[in-house]
Design goal:
It is a single chain. By secondary structure, the chain is mainly alpha-helical. The chain contains 15 helices and 4 strands. The protein has a 4-stranded mixed beta sheet with strand order 1-3-4-2, with helices on both faces. Strand 3 (153-157) and strand 4 (164-168) form a beta hairpin. 32% of the residues are buried.
Length: 364
């Protein structure tokens, strides 16, 4: 596409040769990135946080690399905007899990889920919006296409910094993405101090993922109130419960089995009927329950652009990314930065649903 040899491109990438101005212009155009992306050094250095990829065993290295790079872009955007607006303080409880994940029991995970709810002053009932909860505690959440259906979500956890959570939208439903968010919270609280070498061991990785999954179920479906609602072991009962708890019927069946709310034989029969109804492909209500859309970066961009000092060009130059990538990672409507947005500046209707809107004070 550049009209040069592969050897020349390799020389550009390894800093052995500088492209001519004409070739540099073509690179910018073809890759849809601003010139600053190529001319400004990445000051973040090596990745300090610990990345967790859900479904990593099935995902290709290329897919993981692409997702990890976009997560770094999310950090770039947050760093730049953080110099202008104030984000919520990080407020995640220190649950002091054992350093060795294989020493962490299911009972401890259940207690940790209860402790997290108590730390945030939550009731035992259903969580209204999982994404807003994470954002209110200082996490940065984004919904993004990973370009691979084998990747569900990604979290970068650093013991001393802000968690970054990315929910993959290449497949799934609102309840699936909501469970993904709770799963990533499990990694933040259970595995922040994990030795990353443990992730390269198949048995350890499998157990770590099981722990995050167990935490998500316990956090979204607390044992006592969920058991009170589970008045009959039937698919129809769980279908009625789905709008209240905003969790898939399949996840509720697994949770009921974990809590011994139904015998093994009943569980097997329900899974058979679940498959017969075609619910493994699509459950009832999946098409009417809206996804939870992050609004923290959306609001930060609006404040940045509305302060009377900065404009979209400042944002492009500051984060060194294309409009398309900034809009995708900040949950902005397409065309927002170029002035042809399909929604007005300010929170869209789906962002204004929750009353707990965070206001960012201007920094002096």
């Amino acid at each position: 596409m550049l009209g040069v040899s592969p050897q020349a491109v390799s020389a550009y990438e390894t800093d052995k040769k500088t492209p001519s101005p004409a070739v540099a212009e073509s690179i910018v155009r073809i890759l849809n990135l601003p010139p600053e992306f190529f001319t400004t050094p990445d000051e973040r250095g090596e990745l300090e946080g610990l990345p967790f990829f859900r479904s990593m065993s099935a995902a290709t290295k290329q897919a993981r690399t692409r997702a990890a790079r976009r997560e770094r872009w999310l950090e770039q955007i947050t760093d730049y905007l953080g110099g202008i607006v104030s984000f919520p303080d990080v407020n995640f409880p220190d649950l002091s899990p054992p350093a060795d994940p294989l020493m962490l029991t299911d009972d401890e995970i259940e207690h940790f889920a209860e402790d997290a709810r108590k730390h945030w002053g939550m009731s035992e009932g259903p969580i209204n919006n999982m994404v807003y909860l994470l954002e209110n505690q200082g996490a940065i959440v984004a919904r993004d296409s990973f370009g691979a259906a084998t990747l569900d979500s990604l979290t970068v956890v650093s013991p001393s910094s802000r968690p970054f959570v990315m929910i993959g939208t290449d497949k799934g439903t609102s309840v699936r993405w909501r469970f993904d968010a709770a799963h990533e919270l499990g990694h933040v609280l259970l595995h922040a101090n994990l030795d990353r070498r443990r992730l390269t061991k198949t048995a350890d990785f499998k157990r770590i993922e099981e722990q995050a999954h167990r935490f998500a179920g316990a956090f979204l479906l607390p044992a006592a109130p969920f058991a009170d609602d589970f008045f009959a072991a039937s698919l129809d009962t769980l279908q009625e419960m789905k709008p209240r708890w905003k969790v898939s019927i399949g996840a509720m069946m697994m949770r009921a089995k974990q809590l011994d709310l139904m015998p093994e034989q009943t569980s097997r029969r329900m899974w058979i009927n679940y498959s017969r109804r075609g619910w493994r492909r699509s459950e009832p209500l999946d098409d009417v329950m809206p996804p939870e859309i992050p609004r923290l970066l959306y609001k930060a961009v609006d404040l940045f652009l509305g302060d009377g000092v900065h404009n979209a060009d400042d944002l492009r130059a500051g984060v060194r990314l294309s409009d398309r990538d900034i809009e995708a990672l900040c949950s902005l409507p397409e065309g927002h930065l170029s002035g042809i947005a399909h929604a007005p500046v300010g929170l869209r209707e789906d962002h204004a649903e929750n009353a707990q809107i965070i206001h960012f004070p201007r920094q002096s």
